[in-house]
Amino acid sequence: MNNLHDIFINKIGLTESHFQHFTEIMDVSIIRRKEMLISPGVVCNFMAFINSGLMRSFVIRGDYERNTDFYFEKYFVGAYASFLTQTPTQSYFEAMTDCEVFCINRQQYEELISADAEWLRLGKYIAEFIMIRKCRREMSFLKQTAAERMRDMLIQYPGIEQVIPQYHIASYLGIKPESLSRIKLLDALNHRHS
């Protein structure tokens, strides 16, 4: 709960009473490892905050899964385009570990905004958080090699290799696991000779 409190007060700029009200109406859910938070064809009608645990989003093309993002503790997670447009999502959102998530549904959020426009700050924070991540990811595929994407990922997510299997990381980078192994080997050799 401290993670959410810190974001509400120090990052979003809402008040203690906003935070208290949110905690009174939110649902607390435990999503077990390998369980889906959202699946394709479903309209996402909630916002979720990961209090603990790790999730991934992915799509399936043919028989191949492609990771689109990872969601760590202190991240908001959900099919945001589906939430905004109220159309079915195309992605899977799966717990990679047991996760505790705090959720409010779309109707609750709209009621909060109707009662107090300050709640728009929450939506703005989530939208900016998601947009910045999406833009960085898109640019990485347009401008960087797989090795550069890997180095940036390690900077952005320190310790990711200790918590996420290599085949998931390779999928996120848009390469095969054996290509990731080669990149890591070359990187290690380059560091040894520099």
From TrEMBL:
It holds the Pfam family cNMP_binding. Residues 13-121 form the Cyclic nucleotide-binding domain. InterPro entries: cNMP-bd_dom (IPR000595), cNMP-bd_dom_sf (IPR018490), RmlC-like_jellyroll (IPR014710). Gene3D superfamilies: Jelly Rolls. SUPFAM superfamilies: cAMP-binding domain-like. This is cAMP-binding domain of CRP or a regulatory subunit of cAMP-dependent protein kinases. It comes from Pedobacter westerhofensis.
